[in-house]
Write a structure and sequence with these properties.
The chain is mostly beta strands. Helix content is 0%, strand content 49%.
């Protein structure tokens, strides 16, 4: 059974940065794509960034391009997201997710409906 546990969220001032980590266990896919999503109150869950097993390919939502960096430790199935120049609009619950197969270009890697396992989330609150 896949288990994903996020950590590293918290309250941050606008302009600051945050690093989120996801520890994964039970993943048996030969290849997999891991991603970060976020959901603000009253809004749909949206993709933030996705990375292939050895970080050979990665994808970012337009809203975080230039401010986010996603990385993976393929051997440990650990996932990290560094988000800088934070804005109040970045306030959300951040989720780690995984699915089998490759991370494909385009919107599919950031489509939450294609992911099969999810963590419980880590809250990030950005104050102005």
């Amino acid at each position: 059974q896949v288990r994903l546990v996020e950590s590293g969220g918290g309250s941050v001032q606008a302009g600051g940065s945050v690093t989120l980590s996801c520890a994964a266990s039970g993943i048996t896919y030969a290849n997999n794509c891991m991603a970060w999503f976020r959901q603000a109150p009253g809004k749909e869950r949206e993709g933030v960034a996705a990375a292939s097993m050895h970080s050979t390919t990665s994808f970012y939502a337009d809203s975080v391009k230039g401010r986010a960096s996603i990385s993976r430790d393929g051997a440990k199935n650990a996932l990290k997201l560094e988000l800088s120049s934070l804005k109040p609009a970045d306030t959300a619950m951040y989720y780690c997710a995984v699915r089998g197969g490759y991370c494909y270009s385009g919107s599919s890697s950031l489509d939450p409906s294609s992911y099969t396992s999810w963590g419980q989330g880590s809250q990030v609150t950005v104050s102005s």
